[in-house]
Amino acid sequence: AVEEMEPIHKLCKLLEASKFETRMEGVAILLDQCKTSPQFISTNIVQIFDHFVPRTGDTHKKVKQKALEVLAEMIGILKDGLNPVMIRLIEGVTNNLNSKDPGIYGAAVKALEESIAHLDKVSLMKELSNRRSHLSGQALLDVTERIAVLVEWVYPRKPEVIKRYTLPVLWSFLGNKALPVRSANVRPVVSKLAIALHKVMGSKLK
Q1: Which among 57, 82, 114, 177 counts the fewest CB atoms within 10 Å?
Q2: Gap between the Cα atoms of 111 and 174, Å rounded
Q3: pLDDT reported for residue 178
């Protein structure tokens, strides 16, 4: 068991190294291990994410972008194996959706799209809806748009999740006169969410 954990310990050391080149190397090795030993990574995902998620907020732009790009690939490989770290994963992604760096922003959007494509949609709906109150600007718009996309899939399976988590997102837009985002950009996104909810709920939405 100790021998089995040795690669994890080495990986975690690389991810927390003082030199950014070494942290980059750790991120690249993590992706390689996901491809060659996905079950091993999934089994130890909580410990790995303790050291990996901080790289999505790294002080060095190259490390941050690389971590987000690798995260997007990991989501496609590990899928449900990431369920135990869903909250931290979504935090790492959404915290970068207001980045002015096009590379970092693009990588964060890609990771968000991969999440919708491969992760448990009910859990994802809950986490994205919960994150809404912590977001502003473009991040708030991006997340709300993805919530609207998830509505059609989640409602037939878990209508209570829509009522408890998603409706408050719509109400927060409709009832808040001082939104943390430019109003001109809000209207099409809120309309998209309202239309998605009305499509599945009909008159119940009233």
Answers
A1: 177
A2: 29
A3: 62
> What does the pLDDT read at residue 75?
97
Q: Which fold has domain 1-119?
A: Leucine-rich Repeat Variant (1.25.10)
DSSP state of 58: -
Q: Which two tokens stand for residue 149?
A: 């996309």
The tokens describing 195, both together, are 């239309």
Beta-carbon contacts of 163 under 8 Å, excluding residues fewer than 6 positions away, are none
The amino acid that residue 64 corresponds to is K
Q: What DSSP designation does 79 have?
A: G
The length of the chain in residues reads 206
CA separation for the pair 172, 147 (Å, rounded): 14
Yes or no: say if 119 and 84 are a contact pair by the CB < 8 Å rule: no
Over the chain (206 residues), what is each successive 10-residue block's mean pLDDT?
A: 76 95 96 94 94 96 97 96 95 96 98 97 96 91 96 96 96 78 80 96 94
